[in-house]
Amino acid sequence: MSDRGLSRRQYLTTVGGTAVTLSVAGCSGDGGSGGDGGSEQTITAGTAPGFPPFEMKEGGELVGFDIDLLEAVVEQTDYSFEGWEEFEFDSLIPALTNNNIDVIAAGMTINEKRDDTIDFSDPYYSSDQAIVVRADGDFAPESLSDLADRPIGAQKGTTGEGVVQDELVGQEITESQYNAYDNYVLAIQDLENGNVDAVVIDVPVANTFAANRPVEVAFVYETGEKFGFGVRTDDDARQEALNAGLSTVREDGTYEELTQKWFGE
Ligand code: ARG
């Protein structure tokens, strides 16, 4: 249970420093010399910006909680970090299974449907869904049934879209009243414009939009979601390394520092 890559790395680091760590790790068979396309011992990460404060662009730069957290976690492993690739959210799982990236860090909820195609690290954040409306107070729904016959938005491929499809379409609203966006920023813009009357989105992201734009959380729909880093199903080595790294950054205070930095918690 505790016999993971990390403890070996810590041991090697103590004894011999970085050079020894890397060369020994390279022979350890962790990444497999049998070839996953020359990408052994490296991690290229994929994300979908426009999901503040988890990942967003600021002055052209990719920043956010997921960015800092994954980089801190990878630093605790034998893997070298190769950088970030950006996708729309619904392209992340295909990018991972096609080997374009090795890890997804995108506020991605661990769920059974995704678990069929990919694997996840241990959870690193919890969330429910928020129903966000314009802050002018004209429309103040308190439950899903109050959304009847209203145009509703969410990002394609998300669990927010899942709530709309499973709980609203065909019941409170028609299929054409659901507006699917490539990006939540566009959904929030359309909410401000009056093109939709509500957006279903993860609570911490809803709070961030509400702090910066003329929108507010009308109510929370409890889903009990947990975010994890996505890895390929056959990639036990990276999964274990990320889990060990996550528990280290939780123990050494880095995780708390980052939640304070990005959520003020
Ligand atoms: N947590 C939700 C999900 O997993 C939304 C994630 C959206 N992430 C993003 N980077 N746009 O479906």
Tags for this entry?
binds arginine, 265 residues, globular, D-Maltodextrin-Binding Protein, domain 2, three-stranded parallel beta sheet, single chain, disordered N terminus, alpha/beta
Task: Tell me what the structure shows.
- The chain has 265 residues and is of the alpha/beta class.
- Mean pLDDT is 89; it is low at 1-38.
- It has two domains: 8-124 and 228-263, D-Maltodextrin-Binding Protein, domain 2, CATH 3.40.190; 128-223, D-Maltodextrin-Binding Protein, domain 2 (3-Layer(aba) Sandwich), CATH 3.40.190.
- α2 crosses α8 (236-251) and α2 packs antiparallel against α9 (254-263).
- The protein has helices spanning 5-27, 65-75, 92-97, 112-115, 159-168, 184-193, 203-212, 236-251, 254-263, and strands spanning 42-47, 56-58, 61-63, 80-86, 103-104, 118-120, 125-134, 152-155, 178-181, 198-202, 215-227, 230-232.
